[in-house]
Amino acid sequence: MQEQFIIFAQICEGLSNIKSIKEKVNILSRYLEELSEISLPIAVTFLSGRIFEPESRLLLHIAHNTIMNVLSTITDLDMKEVHKIYLQYGDLGYLVEHVLSHKFTRALVDFPSLSISDVYELLTKLACIGGKQAQSTRKKILLGLFMRCEPLEGKYLGKILTNELRIGISKGLLLTSLAKAFGADPDMIQNALLVNGNIAKISILAKKKMLETVKLKPLTGVSYMLADVMYNSKEISDYFGRDLIVEAKYDGIRAQVHKEDNKIKIFSRSLNDITAFFPDLAKAIISIIGKYRIILDGEILAYKNDRPLPFHYLQRRLNTKNVTNVNTDLVPVVYIVFDILYLDEELTHLSLHNRKIILDNLKFSLPILHADWKFASSASSIDLLFKQSKDLGYEGLVLKDPNSEYQLGMRGKKWVKLKKELDTLDVVVTVAEFGHGKKAGTLSDYTFAVRETDESSKLLTIGKAYSGLSEDEIDELTQNIKSIAIRSDGFRIWTEPRIVLEVSFDGIQKSERYESGYALRFPRIKRIRSDKDVNSIDSLNKVIEIYSRQNHSFHDYINFK
Ligand code: AMP
Predict the structure, then answer these.
(1) How far apart are CA 251 and CA 67, in angstroms?
(2) Catalytic residue among 180, 207, 249, 356, which?
(3) For 171-187, what is each residue's pLDDT tens digit?
């Protein structure tokens, strides 16, 4: 009974109506505790906001329109009516629930009820469909799935399909509940997740009381070490007061390359397996790296004639469904390696300087490059390197403490980034407006929001930007936003919070104009972050932190410019 999808849906519904964290943990832990080894990893993956485990290469993109189309088939409603109901709710899950619970639904035959693994199997089937008949087969499977759903099941199936569970469950809460369910130490489970970013696997190991077996090893994504930010060279040299390892800040996508035997995996920043997007890189890496068992950390960059290409070239590659020779030639990429976590054994406990020595002893050739690095300590030498890096087409500098270990999942002051603009925020688009003049007919003005807190899913608007994107990118966003529109008043579209932008700005001021109480000075869109989702955007905490820091360093920053 516990394995039934209806129970999963009821638990989600219950959790979304409860405010108390303690109570949520109680409910969730009791539920997880009773799940079988088959259903547990599936439920945990769904609860973590994913459909498939992070290491899986499966991707499921079902357009809202396809789902609406299927709903219209199983009801007496036409597409227009279904769309109208959707706009009323602005959430696909609610739409499915509404449609399935009304009498206009065609009589359902007595289908067997769904277990959580039935749902997973059918979703896997959906993700694997290819070929000419793909769209119609996809619709048939979806139709079968919805026909077997109770309204509440339909609601959560709709939410899973659109990656928007939104039941107020943070990763922290899920981990605490897993720890409670299986009597595990919460710190141990947290650490296990840093070493093995696959929460589904961790849940099984917690159930089997085998968390201590989790070890860092190739082919399993590891949480990245991240950089904090500082605003000028003087602040950095005063803070550290000694030699730092200085590298360019590359404007590409962060990637881990794992190799063992003849297998290679490339993981994105959110630990998705992105090998399929870079077949050229994977093939080359496997022949260059040869015999090693290895985990490398670095950045994938679009690169031609010894120069980095702007980020949007890379974006083209990531937006392609089938990467073929044509688009690999069009957007050649390199992998710039700046760290090594594993070379036949774990290296994360070594100092960065020692890791660099090991790395530099490895012979690489294009498309793998060593990140160039130098020691520097004074503000003037940092400024000089900053200028050189900008001249080479990079974004700024990352400065690293040579004595630091590789701290999994940490954003701390062992690594700091220095960029020209005051800072950037990752935000999500909530409203888009049609532009004027040359931009007429396209959605080119974007109102965006940050999260209220790191744990919350509540969004607060903080600014509006219309510059920084190419015409192609604006066209692409226009299409995307239209497909995820919630409502429109003719010149504005309220959209599902799915499009993440990285915006840069010159300052932050307090303002009544936006819900967050802050506004950005001169916001510019740096890039569309299709590698991030709404769960990984910045929160008001970061805004407040930048706001309070800029008062001390704003003048220095202006001088630095
Ligand atoms: P941000 O995305 O602004 O938080 O900046 C941190 C990101 O800078 C990392 O996640 C990397 O993708 C990227 N980065 C670029 N160059 C480096 C580097 N040399 N060392 C570490 N991270 C780098």
Answers:
(1) 36
(2) 249
(3) 899 999 999 999 999 99
Confidence bin at 104 (pLDDT 50/70/90): low
pLDDT average, residue stretch 109-130: 89
Is the CB of 254 inside a 6 Å radius of any atom of ligand 1?
yes
Mean pLDDT, residues 111-140: 90
Report d(CA 200, CA 222) in Å as an integer. Answer: 14
Q: Per residue, what are the HEC states of 254-299?
A: EEEEEEECCEEEEECCCCCECHHHCHHHHHHHHHHHCCCCEEEEEE
Q: Is residue 227 lining ligand 1, measured as CB closer than 6 Å?
A: yes
As a whole number of angstroms, the distance between CA 245 and CA 398 comes to 8
pLDDT of the residue at 561: 24
**From the CB of 370, is ligand 1 less than 6 Å away?**
no
Active site residue 249: yes
Tokens linked to 428: 């999500």
Local confidence band at 324 (pLDDT 50, 70, 90 cut-offs): low
For residue 363 the two structure tokens come to 């012979």
- Mind giving me the DSSP string for 25-66? HHHHHHHHHHS-TTHHHHHHHHHTT-SS-TT--------HHH
pLDDT, mean of residues 549-559: 40
Q: Hey, is 528 helix, strand or coil?
A: strand
Mapping DSSP onto H, E and C, the string for 161-195 reads: HCCCCCCCCCHHHHHHHHHHHHCCCHHHHHHHHHH
Helix axes 471-483, 311-318, angle to 10 degrees: 40
How much is the pLDDT for 560?
A: 26
Report H helices in 39-170.
39-47, 64-73, 79-89, 92-100, 116-128, 134-147, 151-161
For residue 169, report the phi and psi dihedrals to the nearest 5 degrees: -115, 110
Ligand 1 center to 254 CA (angstroms): 7
Report which protein residue has its CA nearest ligand 1's atom 12: 254
- How many CB atoms lie under 10 A from the CB of residue 320? 15
pLDDT tens-digit map of 56-86: 878 887 888 889 999 998 888 888 888 888 8
Residue 374 banded pLDDT, cuts 50, 70, 90:
very high
Atom of ligand 1 nearest to the CA of 339: 20
Best CA proximity match to 119, nearest among 55, 43, 171, 31: 43
Per 3-state DSSP, the chain is made up of helix, strand and coil in percentages (nearest 5) of: 40, 25, 35
Going from the C-alpha of 159 to that of each of 9, 50, 296, 522, the distances in angstroms are: 10, 10, 35, 36
> Which atom of ligand 1 is closest in space to residue 248's alpha carbon?
19
Residue 367: asked if its preceding bond is cis (omega within 30°), the reply is yes
pLDDT of 422 higher than 80: no
Residue 378 alpha carbon to ligand 1 centre in Å: 22
Residue 63 CB-half CA count within 13 A: 11
On whether the pTM is more than 0.85, the answer is no
